[in-house]
Backbone:
């Protein structure tokens, strides 16, 4: 599904390149559940952003669903990204001015889904995550765990094949975190490919494979030792 | 999608109520002002546009080698008629009138009115619609009269007055009834019914009645006839140059034909260009002011939107991650802007209605009411909303939507920070504009007060003038003199003078005098003022030499004259005393003896050089219009009432319509006073907008730096330190803007003042006042806001982050 070839990203500091990502080669098949680990500043989030097409590397090649991402037209790429990728953040990043319902609905708006269809899809999603009762509340009226649920619901609404999560449990207590991880496992079983960035050893083990980053390089790429 | 945009825009507006209010109020003031000015300009551009065949309508103007020889706006009596009769292939029609004022009465209603004794072509040539009467026959009968709707209402309280009569007085004092044969519908302003602001003639009397008024417009010697012609289709005005020259050469004596050059001005342009383009200049000036004010309001909007943007950065990032394209985000922001502009425009329309009377007064013109515009104009606000919305919204939209999703999610502010310079320049530009408008307002006000100052050369205080009924004969003058003496004997009155002129720039014409013993090559075109011997005493015009005729009255004074200093110089006398006893005469006239020389005074506008003046004794001139009363200080309204009673007793049947000299001067300097009021209004509005901007920006700044304020306070900063921190953002901008505005304002105002021969010097004071006041207000406002913010508990501030 995903193939990164020789991806490098750097910023120039005092004339010398300072590598954030260095020569990353990574293949991810459909249906995998990958955990990316590594210390702060090792490039985890940047790598996730590159995969999520939010950030461009300085060098390298990125094949997504057999298409070369960097040779695509902007519009095409955005289309690809809109329909196939969902994002979950540590800080939830819900839009404060929108209700739960509207937050979940927003990606569909950007994909020009018809109004009746939208209604049905959002209703399904609310139902599935058991947050129907909260649909008219604003994010500030929800607990962190609930907000993250909305965030995930929003990420999944467009039925993406790839879910990218940047420390999804970082702001949650352990019980809420566990619930989210269970949810991810469930989703993965349903066929969604998941890549998560995490600090937590425990959470990483939910993944089918762990990629360890250090100073922008892949240090280790292994199946968890269960 | 669109619905969603509206929803979120509305929620955002509600969430940032304070800034929305600032944005909306600034914008609505700016838009309302622009709309008012726009309506005013539109109204002015409509003048003469609705006349029939407007493209072929012309007015004949006169260029004299010496402008004192005749009026520019009028020309030789028979010229227009002869052009039509002798050159029918070129000229389709002609229209002339003799504008006079006389007393018009209906029963016990007496008013002084401006009359237009006119060619009968008037009703057909311009397509003026008649409410009552038949345009073909209205002027057939002698002593018929056509009046306007407005005057019909004034005299009769209704418009269906055809067949009624009005009594009008001739200049020899006789009265005659005139039958109303037509009522003209009120039409948009035009230069036929109203050739200038002094000639608002709403009574039209056919030419056949000229004799009754003792007037003649069919004489080549009559230089004062307003004349219009309609050219045949496709004929250019140049084609008439030759015919006019030939007619003048054939019919007028050398002193006219050598000096006069009539020319045609299209009526469509006449109104805007008359008086050196006075109206046009005013239109340009106010339009420019309106544009700048609107621009300032828009700048506020842009500034506040961009400063506020940091609070939206996360939202932008999220939307991008969720698949929002840049275009979609821009649409969202633009819609938000347009909603705000919509609200602002709505309020602007309310302000338009409320401020209309005020601005109409400032500009001296009734600005059209909202409902009086053609229906198609309803689209205009919509177009305006779109235009302003785009103008104000496009930049913030571009900046905000350009943020990179990954950066904005991390809360990076890189691209916003770079714009601080731009934002400061925009604020600077506002201050720059406000300062210039402010300086301009001060200088214009100062110049206007010069018009009313002691520098006039006479004392205008406590002088009231009133127009008299006419009987221009020796007996008539004697009778008026007696009446004058009756008034003078009143205890509340110190002096009364009988004259044809009051110092308002309008005199009966000029006389080409030369000193006896020299010849006509030494002629001086001298403004003649026909007055009695009390004139100098009443107006307190100081004498340089000799006496102002004789006091008490001496019948032999009729062959004496008094001149002003400028005339004495022009006649070649080395000093005033030398002039006394010398005789001057016009060609073919009697010599008159100079018995006095007055100091120079401003008879006309200070725009022009003081002209040579000769006072002609009213016994010689036998024309008069005014009694000027010098009142004794005290209860003025009681004095006026006493005057009114005395007037009714002495001059029954004549209306007592008095004017204070101040008001006469106000009329003379109408456009300057309008400019002064407009500049003051603009200053006030500019200040409000600048203040709104500063308040808005500071509050955004405070919001953003709440944490910083908290930390600094924890570290021991006093309120004063924090205030100065914020002042540093604005004070240099104000200073730089002030410094730049000085030369620009100086240049503009120098140009304006150069139009006046008599003008104030430009001092540093107006510049300092403007910059200091603007600066002080800004600093006070900022300090107040910051003091309020920093008074809060720092711990609370820190926790909110």
Residues:
């Amino acid at each position: 599904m995903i193939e990164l070839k020789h991806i490098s990203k750097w910023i120039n500091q005092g004339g010398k390149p300072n590598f954030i990502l260095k020569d990353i080669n990574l293949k991810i098949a459909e249906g995998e559940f990958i955990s990316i680990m590594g210390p702060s500043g090792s490039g985890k989030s940047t790598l996730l952003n590159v995969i999520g097409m939010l950030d461009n590397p300085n060098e390298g090649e990125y094949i997504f669903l057999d298409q070369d991402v960097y040779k695509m037209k902007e519009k095409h790429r955005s289309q690809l990204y809109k329909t196939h990728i969902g994002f979950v953040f540590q800080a939830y990043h819900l839009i404060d001015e929108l209700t739960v319902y509207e937050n979940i609905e927003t990606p569909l708006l950007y994909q020009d889904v018809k109004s009746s269809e939208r209604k049905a899809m959002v209703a399904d999603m609310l139902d599935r995550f058991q947050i129907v009762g909260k649909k008219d509340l604003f994010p500030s009226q929800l607990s962190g765990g609930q907000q993250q649920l909305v965030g995930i619901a929003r990420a999944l609404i467009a039925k993406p094949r790839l879910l990218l999560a940047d420390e999804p449990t970082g702001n949650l207590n352990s019980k809420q975190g566990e619930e989210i991880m269970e949810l991810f496992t469930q989703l993965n079983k349903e066929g969604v490919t998941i890549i998560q960035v995490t600090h937590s050893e425990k959470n990483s083990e939910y993944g089918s494979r762990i990629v360890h980053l250090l100073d922008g390089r892949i240090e280790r790429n292994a199946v968890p030792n269960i | 999608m669109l619905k969603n945009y509206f929803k979120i825009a509305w929620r955002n507006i509600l969430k940032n109520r304070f800034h929305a209010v600032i944005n909306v109020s600034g914008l609505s003031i700016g838009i309302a002002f622009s709309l008012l000015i726009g309506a005013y300009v539109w109204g002015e551009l409509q003048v003469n546009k609705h006349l029939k065949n407007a493209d072929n309508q012309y007015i004949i103007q006169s260029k004299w080698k010496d402008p004192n020889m005749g009026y520019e706006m009028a020309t030789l009596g028979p010229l227009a008629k002869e052009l039509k009769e002798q050159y029918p292939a070129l000229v389709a029609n002609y229209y002339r009138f003799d504008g006079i004022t006389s007393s018009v009465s209906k029963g016990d209603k007496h008013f002084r009115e401006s009359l237009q004794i006119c060619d009968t072509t008037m009703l057909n040539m311009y397509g003026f619609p008649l409410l009552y009467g038949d345009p073909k026959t209205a002027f057939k009968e002698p002593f018929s009269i056509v009046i306007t709707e407005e005057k019909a209402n004034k005299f009769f309280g209704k418009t269906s007055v055809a067949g009624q009569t009005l009594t009008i007085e001739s200049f020899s004092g006789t009265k005659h009834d005139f039958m109303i044969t037509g009522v003209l519908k009120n039409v948009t302003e035009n230069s036929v019914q109203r050739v200038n602001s002094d000639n608002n003639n709403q009574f039209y009397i056919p030419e056949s009645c000229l004799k009754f008024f003792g007037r003649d417009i069919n004489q080549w010697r009559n230089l004062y006839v307003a004349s219009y012609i309609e050219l045949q289709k496709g004929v250019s005005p140049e084609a008439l140059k030759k015919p006019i020259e030939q007619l003048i050469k054939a019919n007028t004596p050398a002193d006219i034909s050598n000096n006069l050059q009539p020319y045609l001005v299209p009526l469509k342009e006449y109104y805007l260009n008359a008086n050196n383009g006075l109206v046009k200049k005013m239109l340009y000036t106010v339009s420019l002011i309106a544009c700048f004010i609107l621009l300032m309001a828009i700048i506020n909007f842009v500034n506040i939107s961009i400063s506020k943007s940091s609070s939206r950065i996360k939202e932008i990032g999220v939307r991008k991650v969720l698949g929002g394209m840049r275009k979609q985000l821009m649409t969202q922001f633009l819609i938000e802007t347009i909603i705000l502009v919509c609200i602002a425009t709505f309020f602007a329309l309310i302000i338009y209605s409320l401020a209309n009377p005020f601005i109409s007064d400032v500009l001296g013109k009734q600005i059209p009411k909202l409902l009086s515009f053609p229906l198609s104009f309803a689209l205009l606000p919509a177009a305006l909303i779109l235009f302003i919305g785009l103008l104000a919204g496009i930049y913030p939209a571009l900046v905000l939507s350009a943020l990179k999703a990954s950066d904005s999610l991390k809360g990076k502010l890189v691209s916003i920070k770079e714009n601080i310079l731009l934002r400061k320049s925009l604020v600077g530009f506002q201050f720059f504009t406000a300062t210039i408008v402010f300086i301009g307002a001060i200088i214009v006000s100062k110049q206007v007060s010069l018009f009313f100052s002691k520098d006039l050369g006479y004392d205008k205080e406590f002088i009231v003038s009133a127009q008299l009924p006419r009987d221009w004969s020796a007996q008539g003058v004697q009778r008026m003199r007696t009446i004058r003496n009756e008034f003078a004997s009143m205890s509340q009155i110190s002096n009364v003078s009988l004259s044809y002129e009051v110092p308002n720039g309008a005199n009966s014409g000029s006389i080409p005098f030369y000193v006896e013993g020299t010849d006509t090559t030494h002629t001086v075109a001298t403004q003649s003022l026909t007055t009695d011997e009390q004139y100098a005493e009443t107006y307190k015009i100081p004498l340089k030499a000799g006496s102002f005729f004789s006091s008490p009255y001496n019948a032999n004074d009729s062959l004496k004259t008094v001149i002003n200093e400028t005339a004495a110089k022009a006649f070649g006398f080395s000093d005033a005393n030398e002039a006394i006893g010398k005789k001057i005469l016009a060609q073919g006239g009697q010599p008159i003896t100079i018995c006095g020389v007055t100091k120079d005074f401003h008879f006309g506008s200070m725009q022009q050089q003081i002209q040579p003046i000769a006072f002609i004794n009213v016994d010689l001139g036998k024309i008069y219009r005014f009694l000027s009363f010098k009142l004794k200080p005290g209860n003025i309204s009681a004095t006026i009432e006493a005057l009114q009673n005395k007037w009714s007793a002495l001059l029954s049947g004549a209306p007592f319509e008095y004017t204070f000299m101040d008001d006469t001067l106000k009329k003379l300097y109408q456009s300057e006073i309008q400019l002064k009021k407009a500049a003051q209004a603009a200053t006030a509005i500019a200040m409000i907008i600048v203040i709104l901007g500063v308040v808005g920006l500071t509050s955004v700044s405070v919001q953003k730096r709440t944490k910083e304020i908290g930390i600094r306070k924890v570290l021991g900063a006093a309120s004063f330190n924090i205030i100065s921190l914020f002042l540093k953002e604005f004070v240099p901008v104000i200073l730089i803007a002030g410094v730049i505005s000085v030369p620009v304002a100086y240049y503009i105002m120098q140009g304006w003042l150069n139009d006046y021969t008599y003008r104030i010097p430009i001092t540093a004071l107006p510049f300092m006042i403007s910059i200091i006041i603007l600066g002080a207000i800004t600093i006070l406002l900022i300090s107040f806001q910051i003091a309020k913010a920093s008074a809060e508990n720092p711990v609370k501030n820190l926790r909110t982050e």
Q: What stands out?
A: Chain A is about 35% helix and 30% strand. The mean pLDDT of chain A is 88. Chain A touches chain B through 25 residues (CB under 8 Å).
